Amino acid sequence: MAHALDPALVQLSDENLADLPPSVSCPAYDRAGLSAGIVHIGLGNFHRAHQAWYLHRLMQNGEALDWAIVGAGVRPNDERQRQKLAEQDYLTTLVELDPAGTSAEVIGPMIDFVPVQPSNQQLIERMAQPDIRIVSLTVTEGGYYVDPVSKTFDATHPDIAHDVAHPESPTTAFGAIVAALKMRKDRGIGPFTGLSCDNLQGNGAVLRQTVVSLARLIDPELANWIDKNCSFPNSMVDCIVPATGLKEIELVRSLGISDASPVTHENYRQWVIEDDFCSGRPDLDKVGATFTDHVHDYEAMKIRILNGGHQIIAGVGEILSVATISDCMANAKIRSLFRSIALNEIALHVKPVPDTTPKDYVDLIDRRFSNPRIIDTTRRVAFDGSSRHPGFVIPTIREGIAAGAPIEGLALVEAAWARMCEGTREDGSRIEPNDPFWDDLQETAVLAKADPLVWLRQRQYYGDLADQPLFANAFSNWLNIIWSKGVETSIDQFLKD
Questions:
Q1: The pTM is what?
Q2: What is the pairing mode between strands 92-98 and 263-265?
Q3: Which residues of 69-95 are buried (b: 16+ CB within 10 A; e: fewer)?
Q4: Contacts of 208 (CB under 8 A, 6+ apart)
Q5: What is the pLDDT of residues 207-228, one digit of tens each?
Q6: CATH class of segment(s) 296-496
Q7: What class has domain 10-293?
Q8: Count of alpha carbons within 13 Å of 436, Cβ hemisphere only?
Q9: CATH 3.40.50.720 in the chain, residues?
Q10: Domain Mannitol dehydrogenase C-terminal, which positions (predicted)?
Q11: DSSP 3-state helix, strand, coil percentages of the chain (rounded to 5)?
C-alpha cells in the first residue's frame, strides 16, 4: 500500500488533476471560472458526499457555474478542516463503497472556506455579499436551540443570551446569519434563502423559527423583514457517510491519491426539497434531486424508519460490543429486532410516497444498513442520543399511544438507551462519553437501575411519558429484564412475544 511520501501518490490539487489515475473521474469544468452562490455552514463529510456532489454533477453538465460553495464553520475544529481543504484547493475525493465494487471521483464545487473566528466577522461579511443567494447548514439536529419537548425556541440558552447581548460578534451560526441579514437589509442587497440540510422534520420551519426568534430579541423590525423576505424551504437529505479515519485515508492512497480529508459513502443518495427559494436556485432536479410540496411525507419516512432504525440498532449494539452497523445487521437477533419494530411499530405511522411504500422502505434500509463495505461505527450512530431519541424515536411512541398501536419494541429501544448510558458494556468494557449531556445521562442511568421511572422523568426528553402507564410499565419491565438477564434475552423475549 502506498504511503505519504510514496512518489506514486498524486497530491490532490488543481495543478495535479491531470495526473490522477485514469480510473478516478475529475471535474470537467474550469474551476477557475466558478463563482460563489452558496455559503455552507458546518462543512463536514456529509455535505461533501451529498449537497456538494449534486452541485458537482450539475457543473459537470456545464450548469450552475455561478453556484459554487464557500465553506464556513463556527467551531474550532472547523478551522482545522479549512486548513486541510485549503492545502488541496478545496477538492475532495469521494469513494463509493458498494458490495459490487469500489469507485472514486474527485469533486470541485467548493472554491473557498471562510477563516473561522470567535467573532465570526468574516463569515458575517461573506454572507452579506450580494453573490451569496443561499446559506445552507449541517449543524446536527440538536444544534437549532429548540426545546426537545415543546419544540419552541430556547431563548434562555447561554449561547443565545450572548448573541442577543453582542449581536455584532455572535458565537452561533444563527447569530451570524442574523447579523449578515441586517447588513444586507441596511445595504439594500436583499435576502437569501436559508436551507437546512439536517435530519429534522420540518427543518426549514425550524430554521426559520430559530433565525426569526433570535432576530426578534435583537431587532424586532429586522425580524419582521427576515420573516417576510427570506425563505426557508423544508428538505430531506439521505446518504450514509461514515467518519473519516486512517483507514479511509489509506484507502484513497491505495488508489494513488494523497487526500488529507477524503470521504467514503454508500451507493445511495436522496434529496427532497420544497421549491421555495427567494433568490434563485440551481436546477438540482436535473441531477436527481426532487422538488415537491410534500417534503414532510418523505422526511417522516426517512427520519422515522432510517434514523429511528439507527437508534434501534445503536443502543443494543453498543451494549453487546458490536462495532459497526453492518455487523449489527449481520447479527440475526439485532436484525430481527430492527425489522420487527420498523415494520410493526414505525411503518404503520408513515405515509407512502411516490414509488415507495413504508414496507419497501424498510427493506431498502435493511439492505443499506447491511452493506459490509460501509464501516459506519455503532458509536457514531449512538452519538448525541439526547437529540436523536427525542427527534427520531419518541414522536413515534407518542403516535403509537394515541392510536392504541404497539409500542413494546420502542419501549425496549428506550430501555437499551438507558442501559447504554450507564457507561459499561456487558463484557465489562467502558463506553466512552458519547453525548453533550453524558454526565447527567450517566448519573440518571445509574439511578434508573433501581428505579426505571427515574429515566423517564427526564422531561426535557420524554415530556409526560413517565405519566403514561402503558409506556412507563413497558419501559420499566424491559429495563429490569436487560439488567437482570441481559440484552440478548430481552430481544429473544420481545421477538417471541
A1: 0.87
A2: parallel
A3: bbbbbbeeebbebbeebeebbbbbbbb
A4: 194, 227, 230, 232
A5: 999 999 999 999 999 999 999 9
A6: mainly alpha
A7: alpha beta
A8: 8
A9: 10-293
A10: 294-481
A11: 50, 15, 35
